[in-house]
Design goal:
By secondary structure, this protein is an alpha+beta fold. It folds into two domains: 186 residues, FAD/NAD(P)-binding domain; 115 residues, 2-Layer Sandwich (Alpha-Beta Plaits), CATH 3.30.70. The protein contains ten helices and 19 strands. The strands form three sheets. Strands 1, 2, 8, 9, 10, 11, 17 and 18 form an eight-stranded mixed sheet that branches. An eight-stranded mixed sheet has the order 6-5-13-14-15-12-16-19, with helices on both faces. It has a three-stranded antiparallel sheet with strand order 3-7-4. The longest helix is centred in the C-terminal third of the chain and has 28 residues. It is globular. The two termini are 35 Å apart. Bound molecules: flavin-adenine dinucleotide. Flavin-adenine dinucleotide binds next to helix 1, strand 2, strand 9 and helix 7.
């Protein structure tokens, strides 16, 4: 009988494993993929998550692998600088957003989990069913063609936005798809922006860029329609058109077109099942909060178990984490709103508003919001 079974070894399940290991709980992480993920989705690691990593002694390898984004430059049409968000005041320990592709983050978390609790991650283990039998849960999973059962006091669904755990418990996951679509790609960094993130509020739609490790830069452009079969030249043309920068299409190392959604599970705690990460909430990636939100769910849940897991503590966990997800959803919606196309007059008004806001002393507050300091 284990204390906890974690279903899903994505970034959130892996971090929860590290937290439980440090608290001396018995657990296993069941992950259906035989190999670590290869997709570079999330790149932004915010100060609250870095602080949570540091308490476990696992921040150093992430810091060594990533690059530090110390400010965000906001620009309008024709390169006009509207203002700058400085992240220096958002955290005494980590006054920056760390940029690191998600697959590298997952590799590091997996290595740290193996160091803290060897053999607890089981790859190629796909969970098929879960049964709540009162004092414990029984999970059925398949691995290498064989069916296995495992028992635990709690099961955590960290199995992503299409969560089987949520589906089996019939927990509703209401939400919607936004009209906004995006095209994103990684290229050698041929700009002079250095460690700054650049948010370009263009009349045709937002164009963002972020430094990445290895001398690369990620570009994200809002598009009117979803590019069904994108090619690098689609993105380089948008970048050229919006800010005049030439990107070498032949040197694109990642390209993806995506649409964005928001969802929030009606419950995060149902008996002995607890949902965290994307299984509990999906937030638009514009603003880079989803993975961080999941890590903070994991840290809050580990605290609940560290304090005896009373029903009251679990209820308060659920309330606080649902509220955090709602805040992140609103923050992402504000980000998307400012990045929508504007008519010429609307563009002038928008630039005037943003310039005024950044000059008004609201900058530190906005820097806090962008680094998830109010979650
Ligand atoms: C384009 C894009 C950019 C993004 N950028 C950012 C960013 O900059 N910052 C940020 O914070 N977030 C960002 N996000 C969001 C982030 O990628 C997700 O929030 C994050 O991956 C969620 O982690 P998770 O562990 O909850 O779920 P997932 O990453 O989906 O992991 C779930 C795991 O569960 C496993 N699994 C599923 N079902 C089963 C089963 N039945 N049995 C066993 N295992 C199972 C899956 O194989 C998977 O490994 C971005 C997302 C996108 C699409």
């Amino acid at each position: 009988m284990l204390d906890v079974l974690i279903v899903g070894g994505g970034p959130v399940g892996l971090f929860l494993g590290c937290l439980l290991a440090s608290r001396g709980l018995t657990f296993r992480v069941l992950e259906r993929r035989a190999e670590a993920g290869a997709h570079s989705r999330a790149i932004g690691i915010h100060p609250p998550a870095l602080e949570a990593f540091e308490t476990l002694g696992i921040a150093s390898p992430l810091l060594a692998a990533g690059v530090r984004i110390t400010s965000g430059l906001v620009r309008g049409e024709r390169g006009a600088v509207l203002g700058e968000l400085e992240f220096g005041s958002v955290s005494a320990r980590f006054p920056f957003i760390l940029s690191l592709p998600q697959q590298r983050t997952e590799q590091i978390l997996e290595a740290e989990l193996e160091r803290l609790a060897p053999g607890t991650l089981q790859r190629g283990a796909e969970v098929k069913a879960v049964q709540d039998v009162g004092p414990h849960v029984t999970v059925t999973y398949e691995q290498r063609g064989q069916t296995h059962k495992a028992q635990a006091r709690y099961v955590v669904g960290a199995d992503g936005c299409r969560s089987l755990m949520r589906g089996l418990a019939q927990i509703p996951y209401p939400g919607a798809t936004y009209a906004d679509k995006y095209l994103m790609g990684d290229f050698p960094d041929t700009t002079a922006f250095g460690g700054a993130a650049v948010i370009g509020l263009h009349a045709g739609g937002v164009l963002e860029s972020f430094p990445l490790p290895g001398g690369l830069r990620r570009w994200v452009a809002r598009t009117d329609t979803l590019h069904a079969s994108p090619v690098a030249a689609d993105l380089t043309a948008l970048v050229q058109q919006r800010n005049g920068h030439h990107l070498p299409s032949g040197e694109c190392s990642m390209l993806s077109a995506f649409e964005v959604r928001h969802h929030l599970a009606a419950q995060m705690v149902r008996g002995r099942l607890i949902l965290i990460g994307d299984a509990a909430h999906e937030v638009s990636p514009i603003g880079g909060q989803g993975m961080n939100l999941g890590w903070l769910d994991a840290a809050a849940l580990a605290d609940v178990w560290g304090n005896g897991a009373s029903a009251r503590a679990l209820a308060s966990f659920e309330r606080e984490r649902r509220r955090a997800a709602q805040m992140a959803t609103r923050q992402a919606e504000i980000n998307m709103f400012f990045g929508r196309p504007a008519e010429t007059v609307g563009q002038r008004r928008r630039e005037w508003l943003v310039r005024g806001l950044l000059a008004s002393g609201a900058g530190p507050l906005m820097a806090k919001a962008f680094t998830m300091r109010w979650l």
